[in-house]
């Protein structure tokens, strides 16, 4: 009994490409082989432990840096009472903050909510750098 194959179906076209060993199919086959090897590598217990340590270090450093930056005191209600920004304002400017200065700009950005994405990006950048250094200097010492 012969199996009917639809010559216009996607499966038949893929089979024809594989049989013809076209350049894109060769590249896809090679890429899939690399993907399988990567998955096998990532399944090893010592690699999983390393990845877990790196993930914990990344998220911990991200949380610490973001909490510090958010805690500086430039929030949606202006300068937060008892914050570093309030202490700086009290010590340097007193009751007068010059318009257009860095402090006034940061206060405005905090009230508009545009400071949060900046803090998130900065925290991600610092966390990436810290995790990379930890990976390089602590886990690959010889």
UniProtKB/TrEMBL annotation:
Pfam families: Ifi-6-16 (PF06140)
Cellular localization per UniProt: Membrane
Signal peptide: none
InterPro entries membership: IFI6/IFI27-like (IPR009311), IFI6/IFI27-like_sf (IPR038213)
TM helices/strands, residue ranges: 55-79, 91-112, 118-139
Bilayer topology term: Multi-pass membrane protein
Keyword field: Membrane, Transmembrane, Transmembrane helix
Alphabetized Gene3D superfamilies for the sequence: 6.10.110.10
CC annotations in GO: membrane
Annotated family: Belongs to the IFI6/IFI27 family.
Protein's UniProt name: Uncharacterized protein
Source organism of this protein record: Alectoria fallacina
């Amino acid at each position: 009994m012969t199996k009917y194959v639809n010559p216009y179906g996607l499966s038949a076209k893929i089979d024809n490409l594989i049989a013809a060993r076209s350049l894109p199919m060769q590249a896809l086959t090679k890429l899939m082989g690399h993907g399988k090897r990567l998955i096998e590598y990532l399944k090893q217990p010592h690699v999983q432990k390393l990845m877990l340590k790196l993930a914990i270090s990344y998220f911990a450093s991200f949380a610490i840096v973001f909490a510090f930056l958010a805690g500086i005191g430039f929030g949606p209600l202006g300068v937060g009472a008892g914050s570093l920004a309030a202490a700086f304002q009290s010590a340097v400017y007193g009751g007068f903050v010059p318009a257009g200065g860095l402090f006034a700009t940061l206060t405005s950005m905090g009230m508009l909510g545009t400071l949060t994405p900046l803090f998130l990006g900065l925290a991600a950048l610092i966390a990436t750098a810290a995790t990379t250094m930890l990976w390089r200097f602590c886990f690959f010492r010889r």
